Amino acid sequence: MYGIRVGNKWEYQLRDKIVDTLSYAYVLLVYSEQLDPLFRIALIYRTIGVILFIATRQSFWLILFFDTVKEILLYRYLFEENNTYLVVMVILVILYEVVHKTMNEK
Prior knowledge:
Blueprint: H1 9-30, H2 37-56, H3 60-64, H4 69-79, H5 86-105
Helix pairs in contact: 1-2
């Protein structure tokens, strides 16, 4: 693969997941009054996965505790309280995580 080397894979993934989690926590703290409860659940769920990933160094946890935080924010912006397509969005995120993580493990 072409591009700039950003360090070893583990270090990059570790930093990336920690920064993601901290940025989500920041949004939660700053905008807590305005946030959808679903966002809060997604944030806590993903944080558990990141903690397990850090503790075990196994990407499996990132697949099981998939990241839908950004997607939920976008979904709520576009569809507000309409949950019609929410399940489809979550399924697509899970499929992406499975394909992306399993392909990068090889």
